[in-house]
Specification:
The complex is a heterodimer of chains A (394) and B (100). Chain A is mainly beta and 394 residues long. Helices cover 11% and strands 32% of the residues of chain A. The chains are: A mainly beta (394), B mainly alpha (100).
């Protein structure tokens, strides 16, 4: 069994090493305990923790426009439910639901129109492991994210079937996962406006297949543009609420200091000093060739990466050869939808042997740019520092 | 340097080819540092989570930060730990997985 750990514990796994190239490095313990391990039905992913399972997608997989389901990252706070479709029900209730309802899978499919949305699903803590100084939590590298086409019914349509009272303020969402002891159940809420957004779905499929157990079978919320903490998996209950939901995972966890990342978009959950994390910040990533790779001198190489944001869409990606003094525009790939990531490419011909440090930065259509320095925050969220990678020319 | 380059290159190749690395690793293979009360500490921690949670969060939490983390397990997650248990766990973690 330990052959796997043995091979990789010797520091061979890439993310820690790569991170070093841009100034952020995984904690030594995180680099040492990462192994490539395949959960049932998944290809080998980078194991961060076994129980609950937290597995990260290797960056090389991001060369695909849409992340293959068997390579899609896995993130749970608690035990992973093993649900049977025939027994599964979705309850819609709460103090601001006029006529509470319960749906079977078949009823949902029959009663509501199916919708699709292409969207990046990114863990709030993606890249937490690269924070300097480090902050506690799952020490993710670059791969706690993926891009998929999600298919299901509109959350709005289902809520309206249960009647939304005028007093409605938030919509709570609970999955079948339960804490080991009596600690707080993982329950999230959305502001009513986001719950009613036409792109917010109760999804049953990703990339044309039913959701796997690891990614939320049989149904999960899809909240395009917002970090994945809201994309509740193994969804079993929706509650239309007339006051701010005060569970631990809303009122204490998943928070950012007030105004540090711009104005709050979830006012009913704000306190004097912090707000819930919400929209994904504009970001980009080098994908291929793998940072750290050796490139042939004097030969033209195509460098491939991806860029994404919280739904405004990517306006441009620029790259630099000289540490950021001069920037050139990369060519954007096709537009897969405003919530999806977008591929970018540029040609790079290393004239001299040795190390070449390249930078890439994305700008959103909302005008925002990636950060040049890390914006420290206690939980290690929103790492979108301009990436700096080394290629070796030989 | 050459060896370094060769290693990186080899790794890049390995990962991009998605190697069929032996699977089946599981949490029972995680070995933590020898130390006072280790087995009792690990038995308590592993009631709820695998022990890699300790390893990945090292070595950068000092005694105060480990104390905060362990107390969160009690106050938020309802871990049934006494004050003595907390002290023993914090002592083990700060001694073997501490940093600054």
């Amino acid at each position: 069994m330990l052959a796997t750990s043995g091979v990789l514990a010797s520091g061979l796994l890439l993310p820690g090493r790569l991170a070093a190239a841009e100034g952020g490095e995984l904690p030594a313990g995180a680099a040492a305990s990462a192994v490539l391990d395949a959960l049932p039905g998944k290809r080998p992913l980078i194991k961060r923790t076994f129980r609950p399972p937290n597995y990260e997608t290797p960056v090389a997989q991001f060369r695909h426009e849409f992340t293959p389901n068997d390579a899609f990252y896995v993130r749970w706070h608690m035990g992973v439910p093993d649900l049977r479709l025939a027994e599964w029900r979705l309850r819609v209730a709460g103090p601001a639901a006029k006529s509470p309802r319960e749906f079977t899978y078949t009823e949902l499919l029959r009663s509501f129109r199916m919708q699709e949305v292409a969207a990046v699903n990114q863990c709030s803590g993606n890249r937490r492991g690269l924070f300097a100084p480090h902050v506690p939590g799952v020490q993710w590298g670059y791969g706690a994210m993926g891009n998929a086409v999600w298919r299901g019914v509109r959350l709005k349509d289902v809520l309206e079937e249960a009647g939304i009272a005028a007093s409605a303020l938030e919509v709570g969402a609970d999955g079948a996962d339960l804490p080991t002891l009596t600690g707080p159940d993982f329950v999230k809420s959305l502001p009513l406006w986001k719950a009613l957004d036409a792109d917010t779905l109760i999804a049953f499929e990703m990339n044309g297949e039913l959701l796997s157990r690891w990614n939320g079978f049989p149904a999960r919320l899809v909240v395009p543009g917002w970090t994945a903490t809201y994309w509740v998996k193994a969804l079993t209950e929706l509650r239309v609420l007339d006051r701010p939901f005060d569970g631990f995972w809303m009122k204490t966890a998943y928070r950012v200091p007030m105004n540090l990342f711009g104005p709050s978009s979830f006012e009913s959950q704000d306190t004097d000093h912090n707000s819930p994390i919400t929209a994904i910040r504009v970001n980009s990533l080098f994908v291929d060739p793998a940072p750290g790779a050796t490139l042939e001198v004097g030969k033209q190489h195509e460098i491939l990466g991806i860029a994404w944001d919280g739904g405004a869409g990517v306006r441009r990606v620029e790259w630099s050869l000289d540490g950021g003094a001069n920037w050139r525009e990369a060519t954007l790939g096709r537009d897969l939808g405003r919530y999806a990531w977008r591929q970018w490419r540029f040609q790079f011909k290393p004239a001299l042997a040795g190390m070449h440090t390249l930078l890439a930065r994305a700008q959103s259509r909302d005008g925002s740019m990636q950060s040049e320095v890390l914006i420290q925050n206690p939980a290690g969220y929103h790492h979108n520092v301009v990436q700096r990678v080394d290629y070796h020319a030989a | 340097m050459l060896r370094e380059l060769a290693t990186r290159w080899l790794l890049a190749g390995l990962l991009s080819a998605c190697p069929a690395i032996a699977n089946g690793a599981d949490e029972t293979g995680i070995v933590l540092a020898e130390g006072e009360s280790r087995d009792r500490v690990l038995a308590m921690c592993s009631m709820c989570h695998s022990l890699d949670y300790i390893v990945i969060n090292s070595p950068f939490l000092d005694r105060t930060a480990w104390d905060k983390t362990v107390r969160k397990m009690v106050t938020v997650m309802d871990a049934p730990l006494t004050e003595e248990d907390v002290a023993m766990i914090v002592n083990y973690l700060a001694s073997h997985y501490g940093g600054d």
